[in-house]
Structures are given as C-alpha cells and as structure tokens.
C-alpha cells in the first residue's frame, strides 16, 4: 500500500507578494491624490488670478476733517474684506479735505479744476460736513442722491456758567443778534459782569458750522420754522440787519479773530475767566465738542442748543461723476457707502460722537445729546452766498451821497438791459441791505439837469428810516427813484463832484464813515472845471475834522482814470474798475464801497 503525505492543515499563502501589492496601491493612490491636489491648487490660483484680472483699483474718498479719521478706519476694514468689482481688486484711500475746498473745486462742473497736490487724488466719493455743500455744486457733479451717513446738530459751545444762563432764559436763535449788539445785554440773563454777547463767527477753512448757524439765525428772524431760507428772505431788511449786527459785534470784540472753528473753540476752552474774555460762544457741531472733551478731559466747555429749527451737519455720501470716475469707481463708491451704513460700521461713528440712526449715544461723556423737534433745511447757494456776504462784509452805519452818472452813454445796451438799468438795480439792492440808521442820498448828473446846473438832488441825504416821502420812507423813495432814472446828455463829472463833496462836508455826521460814491462810465466833457481846478477845489473844501472820502466806481473804459484815481487818493477813498455793468463785478464793487 502506498503511504499518503501527512499534514496539519492547508498550505499558507506567502506574505511578501501581499505587502508588495499594498505598497503599489498606496503609491498609486498617493500619486493620484498629489495630482488632484496640484490640479486643485492650480485651479484655485487661476480662479484667484481671474478675480482681479484687471488689476488693482483705488477708490479715492474726500472726507471733511471732522469725520475723515473715522472713515479711514472703516475704509481699512472694507479693504480687508478683499472686495472685487468688475475684475478689479479694490482698496480705499481717504483724504481729509475741507468741504468748502472740495465745493470750490467741483463748482465748475464734472470737468472742474482739481489740484491733486492740494486736495489729494480726485475722489469718486465725497463726504462733506453737510448737505449744504452738496446743494452748492452743479447737479451733474453728483451721481444720484447724496444720503446722510452720520449727523451732528450745530450748537453753541459755551462755558458751563453761561450755558445755565442761556438755558434759564430760553434763548432763541433770533435773540443772538440783539445780545451781540446791545450794550451790557447779558445783564438781562443775570450776567451783569459779562457785557455783551461775544459770539465768534470764524469764516476760514473748516468753519462750516458758522454758515449753518447763520442760516438758523436768518430763518428764526424771518419767521421760517424749518427753512430752507430763500434768497429773497436772505436779502430782506430784517435778516440783513440781524446778520449785520452779528458781524459788526464780532468785529468789535477785542483781540485777534480766530479764522477757524477749532481755533475759536480752543480760545473759549483756555480762557481763565470766561466773563472777562471776548469770546463767549462758538458755533460748532455737537461732535466737535465731544471730540474736544475727549482730547482735553476736565474742561467745563459744554453745549447750548438755541430754540428754533436746528441746523444739522449730516455728512452725506455723495458719489461723484466726471471723466476721472469710471464705472468701476462708481460701483466701488456705492459698495463702500453701503458698507458704511451697516450697523457695525455705524457704531464706530456713533462712538466718535456722531448721531447715527438706530444707534445709541456714547455714555462716557458729560454731554447730554438732547433731542430737537425741527431740523432746519439747508438753503441753496444763492441764499447762502447772500447771508455769508453780509457776515464777511457787513454794511456799517454810514452817511453817503450817491452821485450817479445819467449821461447818454449810460443808456448803452450791456447784457439784456442798459448800463444805467444794471447800475440802478445794483444800487437798489445795496440800499435794501443797508441798516435803518444809515444816511443815504441820491444825486444824478449829466448836463443842465436843474436849470444850468448839471446835477440834481433826487433824494436828499438822510436816515433811511425817515418818512415824509410819497413812497413812504427814504429807503423806499431811493428804490423808486432809482427805478425811474433815464439817460440824459453830457458828462459834467467835475462840476457835479465838486458840488456833492461840498454838500457832504457841510452835512457831515460825526462818529461814522462819510462819503460820496461816484458811479460813472466816461470822461468829463464839461469845460467849466479843469482837472487842476477840481483837485484844488476839493482840497480847499476839505476839513480834517470832517473827513469825507470820495469812492468811485468806473464802468468800462474811461480816459479820466488818472484824475479819478487822484481824487480818490487825496480824499482817502477807493477806486474800483469794473469792465461791464452786466455781471456780479458791479454789485461787488458797490457793496464793498458802501459796506
């Protein structure tokens, strides 16, 4: 019998081949995964590169200095989100620029002059202190509606003791002019040692609060509860008189006048004894006082909000248009603006002292952030210019005789009307702005207007408020007679000027400027007086104790300029040359010489 091979079980499989196979699988999977990862990295890199295939784009923002630092903080946040618009990677740069400077640069339209060296890169987004500035640029400059971002009411910065007196007396905006001009007026508020109100009115760069406060005073005086004050209201007697009082009272304050709001606020805060200082109050935004208190804690400067419609610096976001702003820039400006409106970003502005809708006030300040029932709507550029014109060049009480050339050349056409019509219209506007206590009169001259005399007294010089005229007051009579002026014949300037000057010296009013204002468009053609005769006669008629200046406005070309300049120089007057009666230059010259 054969024997079978004995064993304990089935033959085992060798481990070597299995291990080798496993290593091969691992290597294959690893290589496959590496290629997949490499492809993914490549795809991601291509996608990232594709997102900014057009490169970088910098959004320029011009922001008023009072909000620029906070907008820069938020701009850095926005840039950190890596925004991409139209295949451009967007970053934001913020330049602090005073609102008035941006307004002036944009006022000529979308292609207006922009000085990069002075103002920084031309912006696609402008955040001025107030909508007032946006209303003063042409509509074509702004793309869409400029909506407010962060508001701050215009208030008066005062010391604590003064705030208590103002609050107790419930002072209104319209009360400020009388408190500014009345002798010892603050005694009515229980401040017998303080004299009259010293309200600062800085008009330099960074003083937008002054303009808003002036509008509030004007609206209150005009009885307009919410504005906007119109150009007609701005030019009314009651408004111009009130603003003149404010301006003259400020000019009369002792010491140097601060050019900016910040300088005025520093003077107020640094005063050892506010009752003895010239400045008692400064128009500011609430946020400016909040910032000042953070920078100098411990000061007793606080805010007072006069009763009446409250002007507000609302810091609108205005997207600009023009050749320097392309579609990418416009979209970036819009996206950044929406980012600023998010509550998280708004809180940054609220913490800086601005009022942001839906967000609370800072709790680390002594300021109360009071509510106000009515917001003053900002005036347009014409009304604002009229009001600030009074503040910058107030019409002082004076005694002046207007000597108006009505020769035939004044009837020449210049613009839509005649040279004479343009001149009388500019004079009438200035008369309407003059204070009631001023004394004005009107003479006309040509040849043979009153018998053989070349001149005639149309309205005798005297107080504007005086009555007894067919038209009512002297002011009304002047306006009516100016409207009736008609051209006559020749130009007897020398003889008429001699007579007007002698009359002005005889009727001299002490304590104020006395003058003769000559308005003419041509050379003297009357041979009764020579140049030498005129200068000698004026010298003989002059009286050092009764100084009367001769101011002259000459329109167009005038071969008598040398004589007229000598007349002005020898009497302490001024000569203004305007190329045409059609345009603002004539009114500016008249306003300068009668202010």
From TrEMBL:
<dbReference type="InterPro" id="IPR002035">
    <property type="entry name" value="VWF_A"/>
</dbReference>
<keyword id="KW-0472">Membrane</keyword>
<dbReference type="Pfam" id="PF13531">
    <property type="entry name" value="SBP_bac_11"/>
</dbReference>
<keyword id="KW-1133">Transmembrane helix</keyword>
<feature type="domain" description="VWFA">
    <location>
        <begin position="399"/>
        <end position="593"/>
    </location>
</feature>
<protein>
    <recommendedName>
        <fullName>VWFA domain-containing protein</fullName>
    </recommendedName>
</protein>
<dbReference type="InterPro" id="IPR036465">
    <property type="entry name" value="vWFA_dom_sf"/>
</dbReference>
<keyword id="KW-0812">Transmembrane</keyword>
<feature type="transmembrane region" description="Helical">
    <location>
        <begin position="12"/>
        <end position="35"/>
    </location>
</feature>
């Amino acid at each position: 019998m054969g024997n079978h091979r004995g064993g304990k079980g089935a033959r085992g499989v060798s481990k070597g081949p299995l291990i080798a196979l496993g290593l091969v699988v691992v290597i294959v999977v690893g290589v496959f995964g590496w290629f997949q990862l490499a492809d993914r990295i490549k795809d991601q890199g291509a996608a990232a590169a594709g997102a900014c295939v057009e490169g970088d784009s910098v959004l320029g923002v011009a922001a008023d200095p009072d909000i620029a630092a906070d907008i820069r903080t938020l701009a850095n946040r926005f840039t950190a989100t890596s925004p991409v618009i139209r295949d451009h990677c967007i970053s934001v740069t913020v330049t602090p620029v005073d609102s008035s400077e941006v307004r002036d640069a944009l006022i000529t339209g979308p292609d207006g002059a922009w000085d990069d060296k002075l103002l920084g890169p031309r912006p696609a987004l402008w955040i001025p202190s107030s909508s007032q500035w946006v209303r003063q640029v042409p509509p074509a400059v702004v793309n869409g509606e400029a909506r407010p971002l962060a508001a701050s009411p215009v208030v008066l910065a005062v010391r604590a003791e003064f705030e208590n007196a103002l609050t107790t007396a419930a002072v209104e905006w319209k009360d400020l002019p009388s408190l500014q001009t009345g002798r010892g007026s603050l005694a009515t508020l229980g401040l017998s040692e303080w004299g009259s109100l010293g309200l600062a009115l800085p008009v330099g760069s960074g003083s937008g609060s002054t303009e808003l406060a002036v509008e509030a005073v004007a609206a209150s005086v005009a009885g307009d509860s919410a504005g906007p004050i119109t150009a007609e209201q701005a030019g009314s007697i009651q408004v111009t008189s009130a603003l003149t009082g404010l301006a003259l009272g400020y000019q009369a304050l002792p010491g140097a006048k601060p050019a900016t709001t910040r300088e005025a606020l520093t003077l107020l805060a640094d005063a050892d004894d506010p009752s003895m200082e010239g400045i008692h109050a400064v128009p500011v935004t609430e946020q400016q006082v909040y910032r000042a208190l953070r920078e100098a804690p411990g000061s007793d400067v606080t805010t007072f909000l006069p009763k009446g419609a409250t002007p507000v610096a609302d810091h609108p976001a205005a997207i600009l248009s023009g050749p320097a702003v392309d579609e990418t820039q416009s979209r970036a400006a819009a996206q950044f603006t929406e980012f600023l409106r998010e509550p998280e970003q708004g809180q940054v502005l609220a913490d800086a002292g601005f009022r942001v809708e839906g967000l609370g006030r800072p709790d680390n300040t002594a300021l109360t952030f009071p509510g106000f029932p009515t917001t003053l709507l900002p005036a347009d550029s014409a009304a604002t210019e009229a009001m600030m014109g009074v503040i910058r060049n107030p019409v002082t009480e004076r005694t002046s005789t207007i000597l108006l050339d009505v020769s035939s050349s004044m009837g020449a056409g210049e613009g839509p009307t005649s040279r004479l019509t343009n001149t009388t219209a500019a004079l009438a506007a200035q008369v309407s702005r003059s204070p009631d206590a001023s004394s004005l009169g009107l003479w006309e001259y040509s040849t043979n207007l009153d018998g053989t005399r070349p001149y005639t007294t149309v309205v005798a010089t005297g107080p504007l408020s005086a009555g007894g005229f067919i038209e009512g007051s002297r002011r009304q009579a002047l306006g009516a007679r100016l409207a009736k002026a008609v051209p006559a014949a020749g130009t007897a300037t020398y003889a008429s000027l001699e007579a007007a000057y002698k009359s002005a010296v005889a009727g001299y009013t002490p304590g104020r400027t006395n003058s003769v204002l000559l308005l003419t468009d041509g050379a003297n053609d009357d041979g009764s007086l020579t140049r030498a005769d005129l200068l000698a006669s004026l010298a003989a008629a002059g009286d050092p104790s009764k100084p009367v200046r001769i101011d002259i406005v000459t329109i167009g070309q005038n071969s008598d300029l040398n004589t007229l300049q000598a007349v002005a120089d020898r009497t302490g007057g001024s000569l203004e040359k305007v190329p045409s009666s059609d345009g603002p230059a004539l009114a500016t010259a008249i306003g300068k010489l009668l202010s």
